[in-house]
């Protein structure tokens, strides 16, 4: 009896020991975390099981998992087994939450983990989980926008260089734009970055690698505080883990990060009003100015080129050149504008010019008076004025004209005396006559009499034809629509002329006139008025390329006027250009 009792106790002890060797437990990476951190939950067991059932993770969002890992090894004849189910959780809000029990079946028995309490606090500045790949990536990659000048003058160049910093602990495999800045209220020019050259630098006092990701030059078009929108990019980063390969090297895992350079604000100063020249058109920088001619001696009816040129460094594309003042005896054609401007990190550099074609008609000497150009010098922060030299054009052969003599300074009258008039200069003209009528016939029964009598009767068929034509025209809805648009174009063009000097009203009226003219000429609707569509249709109508460019430049002027100060001289030029361009399109369009 005692033997049976001892055997039963021994079997019970063996089974309880075997039973106690099964382990199934939940482990978390932390029990207190910020709402912007991630929580890792591992469910570990030392024997293989079936029908694993995780908790519902109330209060959390599953952002990763389940991932399963198995370890099975023999050491000194002893077997070690481990199986783990892993989840990555993101808190939905602040508060206290419970990771409920998970269940699994091992050898026909149900095992449950113990519940774990988790406290979620407000967001912290830097997640502190050293094993989180996203945290490691966020700590080792940064995007910075470096501004050359945060307090520039209006139309002074500002450079923005976006630098991507990354530490030596990570490898970057991909960079791509997500949201590029629009640079509202700036004239902007992106400088292409052809390749990413690694350089060494410091970020917040620590050594980093960096590459220049993007470069841009901005010219502010408004004063006051202006926002530079942030650049946002996606980065694929290879970050190290705690695992190692068979050679002892650390294994890497991939993390995708979206980083932003953040908003930047600059305070744009207005140009000083004290000392501002009346003819100042917005030039800001450091410039030289000259007026040259292709020749100074020629014959009448020959042509020459007179060029007004500004050269230097500054906002070369954002102001107007001064106009030449020329004698009326010279035939002058519209100037041809040309630009030779390069834009780099220091801003625009190069030259712009207006080239006039001049054709003298008469023999004589013609002066091209000195003209001036004013600009704001950033180095001295003062306005400067440059004057050109006076040029004398000598027309050696050709017909004479009194007008040439009147317009030519410093030419003698060759010794001839002026004619002196007296009071009897018109004495040869007779003031009394003895005229008598020479036509004594009567109008009655003449050809004119019968014509006037029959004319009303002959006009009746003509009136009928005119009436039918008018009725057919009124029935032509499409034609009436075109004529109405043409009428509106003339109307708005006249409105634009009346609004000269009022920038917004003028360019709104001018833009409407251009659009309504195209609707009438090309038979298109407002929805089709895109620049590419307009260019295609005008080209199909055999309009010259230069005329199409002029028309597009007018539309661009209307758009640019919203952000750029315009003077009345520019408005008058745009009005004249619009009238001329519409006339040329009307002649050339087939």
TrEMBL record:
Alphabetical UniProt keywords: Membrane, Signal, Transmembrane, Transmembrane helix
Any signal peptide, and if so, which residues? Answer: 1-20
The answer, when asked if Membrane is one of the entry's keywords, is yes
**Lineage of the source organism?**
Bacteria, Pseudomonadati, Bacteroidota, Flavobacteriia, Flavobacteriales
The superkingdom of the source organism is: Bacteria
Q: What is this protein called?
A: BatD protein
Keyword match Signal: yes
Which InterPro entries does the annotation name? BatD
One Pfam family this sequence matches:
BatD
Q: Which residues cross the membrane?
A: 448-466
């Amino acid at each position: 009896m005692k033997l049976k009792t001892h055997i039963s106790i021994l079997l019970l002890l063996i089974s309880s020991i075997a039973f106690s060797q099964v382990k199934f437990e939940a482990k978390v990476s932390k029990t207190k975390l910020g709402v912007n951190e991630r929580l890792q939950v591992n469910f570990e067991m030392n024997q293989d099981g079936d029908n694993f059932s995780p908790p519902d993770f109330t209060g959390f969002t599953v952002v990763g998992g389940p991932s399963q890992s198995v370890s099975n090894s023999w050491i000194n004849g002893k077997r070690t087994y481990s199986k783990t189910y892993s989840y990555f959780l993101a808190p939905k809000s602040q508060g206290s939450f419970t990771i409920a029990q998970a269940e699994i079946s091992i050898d026909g028995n149900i095992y449950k983990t113990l519940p774990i309490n988790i406290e979620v606090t407000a967001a912290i500045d830097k997640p502190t989980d050293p094993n989180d790949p996203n945290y490691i990536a966020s700590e080792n990659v940064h995007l910075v926008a470096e501004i050359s000048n945060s307090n520039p003058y209006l139309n002074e160049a500002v450079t923005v260089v976006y630098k991507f910093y990354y530490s030596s602990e990570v490898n970057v495999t991909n960079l791509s734009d997500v949201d590029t800045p629009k640079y509202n209220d700036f004239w902007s020019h992106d400088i292409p970055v052809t390749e990413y050259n690694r350089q060494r630098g410091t970020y917040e006092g620590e050594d980093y690698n960096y590459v220049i990701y993007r470069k841009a030059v901005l010219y502010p078009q408004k004063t006051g505080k202006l926002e530079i929108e942030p650049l946002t990019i996606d980065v694929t980063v290879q970050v190290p883990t705690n695992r190692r390969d068979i050679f002892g090297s650390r294994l890497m895992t991939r993390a995708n990060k979206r980083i932003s350079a953040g908003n930047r604000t600059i305070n744009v100063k207005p140009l000083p009003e004290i000392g501002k020249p009346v003819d100042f058109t917005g030039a800001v920088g450091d410039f030289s100015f000259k007026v040259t001619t292709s020749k100074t001696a020629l014959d009448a009816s020959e042509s020459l080129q007179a060029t007004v040129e500004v050269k230097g460094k500054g906002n070369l594309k954002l102001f107007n050149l001064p106009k030449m003042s020329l004698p009326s005896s010279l035939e002058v054609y519209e100037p041809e504008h040309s630009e030779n401007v390069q834009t780099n990190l220091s801003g625009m550099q190069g030259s712009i010019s207006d080239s006039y074609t001049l054709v003298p008609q008469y023999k004589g000497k013609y002066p091209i008076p000195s003209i001036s150009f004013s600009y704001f010098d950033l180095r001295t922060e003062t306005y400067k004025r440059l004057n050109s030299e006076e040029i004398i054009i000598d027309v050696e052969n050709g017909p004479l004209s009194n007008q040439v003599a009147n317009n030519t300074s410093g030419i003698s009258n060759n010794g001839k005396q002026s004619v002196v008039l007296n009071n009897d200069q018109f004495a040869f003209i007779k003031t009394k006559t003895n005229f008598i009528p020479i036509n004594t016939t009567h109008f009655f029964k003449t050809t004119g009499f019968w014509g006037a009598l029959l004319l009303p009767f002959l006009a009746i068929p003509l009136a009928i034809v005119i009436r039918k034509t008018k009725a057919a025209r009124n029935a032509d809805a499409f034609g009436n629509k075109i004529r109405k648009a043409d009428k509106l174009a003339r109307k708005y063009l006249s409105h634009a002329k009346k609004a000269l000097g009022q920038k917004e009203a003028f360019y709104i009226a001018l833009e409407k006139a251009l659009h309504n003219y195209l609707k009438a000429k090309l038979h298109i609707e407002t929805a089709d008025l895109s620049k590419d569509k307009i260019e295609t249709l005008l080209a199909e109508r055999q309009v010259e390329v230069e005329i199409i460019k002029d028309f597009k430049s007018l539309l661009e002027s209307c758009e640019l006027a919203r952000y750029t100060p315009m003077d009345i001289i520019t408005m008058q030029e745009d009005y004249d250009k619009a009238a001329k361009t519409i006339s040329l399109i009307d002649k050339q369009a087939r």
